[in-house]
Write a structure and sequence with these properties.
Layout: H1 7-21, H2 26-33, H3 37-45, H4 52-61
Helix pairs in contact: 1-3, 2-3, 2-4
Length: about 70
């Protein structure tokens, strides 16, 4: 089980918040990103194991970027 404050859940919450701010449904965003509704739901929950390419596609569809820190 993933901790409530895990990076995956933080990412998922940001995606969900931005999707809602853009007034998009999960289905609409999934279509824009080229992924399934199920995959998008998993990303928003911080669950599953989507590919990095899928995550980047979702972020790109929302006008967001991904920053990697060491």
């Amino acid at each position: 089980m993933i901790a409530a404050d895990s990076p995956l859940q933080t990412l998922g919450a940001a995606v969900r918040d931005e999707r809602r701010a853009a007034q998009l449904t999960q289905t609409q965003l999934a279509e824009l990103a080229g992924c399934s509704d199920r995959t998008l739901r998993d990303i928003e929950r911080g669950a599953g194991s989507p590919s990095i390419g899928t995550v980047v596609a979702v972020l790109d569809a929302l006008g967001l970027g991904l920053e990697v820190t060491a």
